[in-house]
Structure formats: structure tokens, C-alpha cells
Recover the amino acids of this structure.
């Protein structure tokens, strides 16, 4: 084994375990841990520590600092990510997103639109989109938009692909009629029907490190993802997103998120309230 | 203030639901079976009924049908809240006119979410 790898970096040694872990999270994903959430980090890492028989946060941080266990690092990062989501989150906004898509579709003729759901967590957001679209396009002969959903978390993506939810998860935001129309029961779980699952393609993409999925896109959702990025990183991601938009494309952020003051490439859409579009001649 | 009638033969469930609903600023009434619930609705309809399925005297389903036949002026929203979590039961409840469905065990978030969906919370 390379000695360099097992000698803890002295600058890290003086940091507390929490700082080591949050530095790891930021380095891998760009996510900063808000002071409010530091308290939850230990709870979030408990199951992993139990699995690996690691007694304390200090011990976990020590293993991570040595860089000897990349898999553990990845699992720790995944555990620390905030993956909170729900079906039809901000329901009125989701409906607007569908209105936007239908308008763009009317303009696009026969061309199949492309939607990118960046930071899709365990799939609730893309499934909600696909359900709304299926309902609105039930009697239409227009091509159904491609939906690409990405996340940095391999665990979240696996769950999203399976489309399997506990009764608590399925009920958060999901009207009962849609639940029985689009999901089947398997024991205690609710599983997205194949005709719903086939509407979405899930890909791994770390917004701070990877190439984005091949664009350009007509609509990009990046909701409740950028909130904890440091400003320079957020700026870079906005550039990348802007570079992946068609000229008339729209971007939707989470409630309380904005592009204003953070990028020269994007502006509030003059056409669709609450959405962002490319800055003209930028 | 919105009002909710909690209908369940379990005192514990009624207490839990009442607690959650009161922190959501609901005025809460209780009934131990469908018959009591129907009387309560006829006397003064709440905004929403949280309805158990299995109860003595009158079941949740029988209550729902009776409510439909009762000519109650302002029909409350009806949210089933039951351990009958199978597809067949849920479909039957929808067919009988239930507006929403909460599967037990439930938590605050589920209840909040479902009340929002029916437009009450
Ligand atoms: C709070 S969830 C939001 C999920 C969904 N968009 C919504 O609004 O309900 C944030 C998601 O962003 C993902 N994420 C965080 N940093 C990321 C990064 N650098 N690249 C890609 N995804 C990231 C997390 O794994 C998580 O699933
Ligand atoms: Mg009962």
C-alpha cells in the first residue's frame, strides 16, 4: 500500500470529524451542509456505521481521511445527501410545467421534446411529470416527450428505476386516484407500472464533475438541488445548464431558488412566469 | 377555522388524529362509529371527515353511502383512514365517493398532504 495514502493529511487531522465529513461531501458533490443540518449528519450516518461496525464519527472520519476505502467514502457521501422529495411537490408549479411543455409542443410540430430532471432523487419528480403528461396527452398523437432524470446518488437512482415506494412515500403528495391508476401493490410496496417506468430514462450525473446528459433540452427541472452549493459552483452549473438548453427552452428551479444575480446566461422568462430562459444574445 | 370530524372506534387513533389536526389549527370533533358520525354531520357538517373503515354499529362504507343519501346540505370531504390497504378496498372507497385515502399507520406528513390534496389544509 502506498504510504502517502494511509498517512492522514495533517491539515485534516486538526479538523473535527464533522468538518472532515462535510468537506468530503462538498468535495464530491458541491453540497455544503447548512448549520441547521449538521445535527442530522450523525443520525444519517448511523446505519452505515452500524453496517461497517464503525464505533464513532471520529473513527469514520479517520478511515475516510486515510483514503483507504473508496466505497465507504461513496456510501458516506450518499448518506449525507439531502434527498428529501415528494410526488407532485409544489403541485401548482408542476401543473405549470406541463402547461409550458404543451405550449412548447404546439410550437415544435412533430419534433419530440426533451426534458431533463436534474437531481431527481428517488424518482418522485420525474414520475410526477410523466403521470401529468400521460394524463394530458391521453388523446394526443403528439410524440411523448423524452424524460431524462439524473442524480449523483447511485442508491437514489436505483430506487428511482425500480419505482418502488413505501406506503408513506407513495402517499406524500400523491392523490389516491393517481396512486391506483399508476401503481401496483407488491406486499407493502407500491410499484410504478411498466408503462409509467418506460417513460423515464435514469442516468448518473454529478452536476459538479460530469458531462451533462446529451442535450439540448426543451425543459430542465433542477429543483431543490442548487440551494446548498457555494455561489461559484452554482454559477458554473447555471452555465452548464444554459449550454444544454435550446434557444426557446425553459428552466424550472425550486420554490425560493433563483438565477438572479448568479449568472449572466439566464433570466426570468418573459413568457412563462416562474420559469427561466436564456438571456437574449448572451 | 376548519373543522374535522374524526370517526374511529379506537380511542387511541382518535386521540392521535386529534393531536395532529389541532396542531394544524383544526377544530376537531369525534365519533366512535358511523351512526354517531352521521348524526354529527346532519347536525352540523364539518369541512372534512376522517373515516375509519371497520367500526361497530355502522361501518365507514355504510356511513359514506348514508351520507350520500342523507341530503346533507354541505357535503364534507371524506378521507378514509384505515388499515384496509389493498387495491380492492381503495378502489371500492373511491367508487363509493371517498375523496382521499390514508393508509394506516399514518403520520403527520401523510395526513397534511392528503388534506392539502382535498383542498382543506
Ligand atoms: C432535495 S433533493 C430534490 C429532489 C427533487 N428535485 C425535488 O425537488 O423534490 C436533491 C437531490 O439532488 C441531488 N444532488 C445533490 N448534489 C448533486 C450533484 N452534485 N449532482 C447531481 N445531483 C446532486 C441529491 O442526491 C438529491 O437527490
Ligand atoms: Mg376500526
Amino acid at each position: 500500500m502506498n504510504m502517502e495514502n494511509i498517512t492522514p493529511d495533517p491539515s485534516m487531522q486538526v479538523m473535527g470529524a464533522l468538518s472532515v465529513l462535510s468537506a468530503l461531501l462538498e468535495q464530491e458533490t458541491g453540497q455544503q451542509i447548512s448549520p441547521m443540518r449538521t445535527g442530522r449528519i450523525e443520525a444519517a450516518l448511523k446505519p452505515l456505521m452500524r453496517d461497517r461496525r464503525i464505533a464513532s464519527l471520529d473513527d469514520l472520519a479517520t478511515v475516510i481521511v486515510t483514503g483507504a476505502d473508496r466505497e465507504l467514502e461513496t456510501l458516506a457521501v450518499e448518506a449525507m445527501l439531502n434527498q428529501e422529495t415528494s410526488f407532485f411537490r409544489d403541485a401548482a408549479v408542476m401543473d405549470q410545467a406541463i402547461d409550458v411543455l404543451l405550449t412548447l409542443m404546439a410550437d415544435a410540430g412533430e419534433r419530440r421534446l426533451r426534458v431533463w430532471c436534474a437531481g431527481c432523487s428517488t424518482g418522485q419528480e420525474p414520475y410526477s411529470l410523466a403521470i401529468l403528461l400521460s394524463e394530458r396527452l391521453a388523446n394526443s398523437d403528439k410524440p411523448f416527450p423524452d424524460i431524462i432524470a439524473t442524480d449523483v446518488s447511485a442508491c437514489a437512482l436505483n430506487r428511482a428505476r425500480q419505482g418502488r415506494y413505501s406506503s408513506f412515500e407513495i402517499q406524500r403528495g400523491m392523490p389516491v386516484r393517481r396512486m391506483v391508476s399508476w401503481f401496483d401493490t407488491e406486499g407493502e410496496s407500491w410499484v410504478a407500472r411498466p408503462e409509467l417506468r418506460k417513460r423515464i430514462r435514469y442516468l448518473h450525473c454529478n452536476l459538479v464533475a460530469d458531462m451533462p446528459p446529451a442535450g439540448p433540452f426543451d425543459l430542465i427541472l433542477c429543483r431543490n438541488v442548487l440551494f446548498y452549493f457555494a455561489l461559484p459552483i452554482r454559477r458554473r452549473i447555471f452555465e452548464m445548464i444554459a449550454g444544454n438548453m435550446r434557444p426557446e427552452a425553459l428552466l424550472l428551479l425550486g420554490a425560493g431558488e433563483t438565477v438572479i444575480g448568479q449568472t449572466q446566461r439566464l433570466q426570468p422568462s418573459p413568457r412563462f412566469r416562474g420559469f427561466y430562459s436564456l438571456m437574449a444574445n448572451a | 377555522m376548519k373543522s374535522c370530524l374524526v370517526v374511529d372506534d379506537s380511542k387511541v387513533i382518535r386521540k392521535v388524529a386529534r393531536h395532529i389536526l389541532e396542531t394544524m389549527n383544526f377544530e376537531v370533533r369525534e365519533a366512535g362509529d358511523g351512526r354517531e358520525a352521521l348524526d354529527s354531520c346532519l347536525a352540523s357538517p364539518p369541512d372534512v371527515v376522517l373515516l375509519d373503515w371497520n367500526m361497530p354499529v355502522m361501518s365507514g362504507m355504510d356511513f359514506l353511502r348514508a351520507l350520500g343519501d342523507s341530503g346533507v346540505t354541505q357535503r364534507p370531504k371524506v378521507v378514509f383512514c384505515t388499515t384496509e390497504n389493498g387495491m380492492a378496498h381503495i378502489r371500492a372507497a373511491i367508487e363509493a365517493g371517498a375523496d382521499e385515502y390514508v393508509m394506516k399507520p399514518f403520520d403527520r406528513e401523510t395526513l397534511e398532504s392528503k388534506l392539502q390534496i382535498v383542498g382543506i389544509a
